Protein: TRP-like ion channel Pkd2
Organism: Desmophyllum pertusum
Amino acid sequence: MACEGIFILFIIYYTIEEILEIKKHKLKYFKSFWNVLDIIVIFLGYVAVIFNVYRTLAVGDLLKGLLEDNKQYANFDSLGFWQTQFNNMVAVAVFFAWIKVFKYISFNKTMTQLSATLSNCAKDVGGFAVMFFIIFLAYAQLGYLVFGTQVRDFSTFEDAIFTLFRIILGDFDFHALEAANRVLGPIFFITYVFFVFFVLLNMFLAIINDTYAEVKSNIASQKSEFEIGDYFKKGYQKMLDKLSFKREKILDIQKALKSADVNQDNKLDFEEWRANLKSRGHADAEIEAVFAKYDLDGDRILDEDEQKRMQEDLEGQKAELNDEIDEMERNKENQERTPQERQQC
């Protein structure tokens, strides 16, 4: 029940999200294949919920009737039929959900090459498919008419089509064809294997290979728009920048401790402290928070002991930040080395 509830919440969330996108992009929303796929998955999700509710209610009603009259015939045919349809629908929904993974494969250069290859060769493959199916269906019709009355695998036109697909995969019964027709059987088999397997199938692979080589050369000549490696590098650099920024703030505070005591009385009042740090670009809230942390007696003045305690804390924080920055920079340099350079180290 918990998982079903979470599933419904996700469906509602994504429904709202898609409605907002449709409202924003209008009809342009439906020009994207991935958006249409999202709509299909959400629709199938709602159908699954409705099926599940109906199944639960139907089972409850059926069991209630059987409990009231135990001599009644338990007819589960209708329920079994709808359960089968539910399983089929869930299978299709899961299939489309997995297809959505292709939307995010641009994180990896290799997967980008594969997806670009499939999209770039679509027109060539479409043209090839027309020629392929003309020859393929011609052989299917020939096999059905010649062997249909004697070979079970060719008994119908549909069976003949599936049998020819199986021959491509190496699953065939040559002796059955030869026994059905000693002349046309071998001729049919040999010519089909030659034209479809050796010629057409290799033409198909050649189209894929040529397109893949072209895509690979294009990607090699230009930097990928966004890769997962770049994502981690940017995150790595952001962490370094944050640590460096914290260290700069600590250095500013240390400088303020030394220079803010204008009258040199070894007592740092809040106004002197505030004026010095404001000139260095610090916000009032930050200035107040740091000062209050070490102003233990609350007199708005840092005496020598309080200043000493602040200085010691700042030195400790700076040392920790320096260690973290050094370690991250070493890791970054190590990641940028080639495997051969790492072995030499």
Remarks:
- The radius of gyration is 37 Å.
- The first helix runs from residue 2 to 25.
- The mean pLDDT is 81.
- The chain has 13 helices and two strands.
